[in-house]
Design a protein that fits this description.
homodimer; alpha/beta; Rossmann fold; 2 domains; 14% strand; glyoxylate reductase (NADPH) activity (chains A, B); NADP (chains A, B); D-isomer_DH_NAD-bd (chains A, B)
């Protein structure tokens, strides 16, 4: 009989955030079964002290979207860190330059969420144009038998053949475009540079795009260049029949201006999965029938959570076995 | 100076219904400017008496979707009738055989509404799968800052790659299919006969279609063959993860069974623009978060009303000038 060699201890993974997938107990268990998971949010000790006590040898970090800023202050306390796996597609909360300087690899959710986010963008758009949430409220309140539909609503707006401007034609923007082409919409876009891979009309100026469109869909990443990209001037160009959809990040729109435009009927409606200071919601928006709001849940589907879980575990496995990461952050 | 010949009196048009477009005063005016319009709903006289008194010479009738049944009882009182222009795409309220027997031509809305109805079908579907109306209520009620999204909802369901079964692959069904292909859904269908023009999988048995699908979308006409086509057995085959969308006519689904399946979680959700005894709504449906209801307003867009108005006027003009109708009802 050969001597039993004890298995090596499971590798250690620090989790900050914690990511949405951990709300599903099965997925948290999947991590617990495979790694020794450090969960500072379960400790009464302040975060930095926790890291200094427990994470000096930790080589891998999983960073949820709820962790506000991963920069040198935190990284200074993680001297052994070799990889950050971000559970979001947006990286505005990660100091990539600082990670690069320290030789820390970064993986992220990549395009895994793109179809879900695009689906919600289209859903919010149809909802705003066709007044679905208002219609649902009308029917469920029980007044359909006593009040005519026609008397209760202004007519809705057709989607087909509308001119749709996509701000940011990355993976999500392209999924939105593909979907809305099937509704016979005319697609054009604004992004940092013209894409040779598509035939949609390109606008280097977002205000000019808005002026030529009925609908604006915000799909770009949030960074210094896109913060408040949608100014008062852009909303003015979109005009009183225009509709804006945002499934990207709240701060891309100047929200104070947006609220005023909606209140004054200077644009026709909005569908917003994200807000500038979420979860805080301007009370004015809650009173408007032509505004549909959702709680930043564009990626909250069973299927995407399962896929994300597999991708995060796959990236960690790759890191610990010195293989290439599955979804590395590309050099900007 | 030539002698002035008085213009001929405008042709007379009887309107029954009255159609939704008449709720828009501009469109009613457009008819009034062009025709001498008989509007029995404005008269205190009972309908049949009104027809006997005023409509003995009337050659053209515009019939709104709200007129419950156009059959021999009404037609007997309109001896000069030559054309019926129906303002709906569905003809279940028109006795076509009786019209044919009397040599009365029939025109209808044809495919004019198909894109709008298909758009609403997709909107209701995304709404049910992604819980948009529930999310909107959550955010607008102001509890987002105090209650986590994850704790408040089960995860939503992804649309991409779902198997969609379309019941009735006419003009609306094909528009729905075209849109959902762009969401990478797998389309199959049930109809009276296999269509040689499409490559989607055909099911001669609607129960088998339901068994092989995640989503069922009802797009067929209501007639003797499709009344209660969606039985308890079909819903059972669709199963507890299945979702059903109905933008056709309420009576195509056995509504009593549907309500029970939804209440007991034996199907996952429903999006219904039509109900069996609308505007009366089963109160059980109003309490379910996984049910999105709209008040049979799939065609209520500014653009479709304008297009319908033009089509109805165009058909009347064609009739009065002995030209072929623009949108005749095809021989079944």
């Amino acid at each position: 009989m050969s001597e039993q060699v004890p298995p090596p201890p499971p590798p250690e993974v620090l989790v900050l955030g914690p990511p949405g997938i951990f709300r599903t107990k099965n997925y948290e268990k999947l991590f617990d079964d495979r790694f020794r998971v450090l969960k500072p949010w379960q400790s009464p000790v302040p975060l930095f002290q926790f890291l200094q006590t427990h994470a000096q040898n930790t080589r891998a970090l999983v960073c949820g979207g709820g962790f506000k800023h991963l920069g040198s202050e935190t990284l200074d306390r993680l001297p052994s860190l070799g990889v950050v796996v971000v559970t979001a597609a947006g990286l505005n909360h990660i100091d990539l330059q600082e990670c690069r300087r320290r030789g820390i690899a970064v993986a992220y959710a990549s395009t895994i969420f793109s179809p879900d986010v695009a689906d919600l963008a289209v859903g919010l758009l149809i909802d705003v144009l066709r007044r679905i949430t208002a219609g649902n409220r009308f029917v469920k309140s029980g007044i359909w038998p006593v009040k005519s539909v026609e008397g209760s609503y202004p007519l809705a707006t057709k989607l087909s053949h509308k001119r749709v401007g996509i701000v940011g034609l990355g993976s999500i923007g392209q999924e939105v475009a593909k979907r809305l082409e099937a509704f016979d919409c005319k697609i054009s876009y604004h992004s940092r540079s013209k894409k040779s891979s598509v035939s949609y009309q390109f606008y280097s100026d977002v205000r000019e795009l808005a002026a030529d469109c009925d609908i604006l869909i915000i799909c770009c990443a949030l960074n210094d260049q896109t913060n408040h990209l949608i100014t008062k001037e852009v909303l003015e160009a979109l005009g009183k029949h225009g509709v804006i959809i945002n499934i990207a990040r709240g701060a891309i729109i100047d929200q104070k201006e947006l609220v005023q435009f909606l209140q004054e009927g200077r644009i026709a409606g909005a569908g917003l999965d994200v807000l500038e200071n979420e979860p805080y919601v301007p009370p004015e928006l809650c009173e408007l029938n032509n505004v549909v709001l959702s709680p930043h849940f564009a990626v909250y589907t069973e299927e995407s959570f399962r896929d994300l879980c597999e991708l995060v575990v796959g990236n960690l496995d790759a890191f610990f076995s010195n293989q290439p990461l599955l979804s590395p952050v590309l050099k900007e």
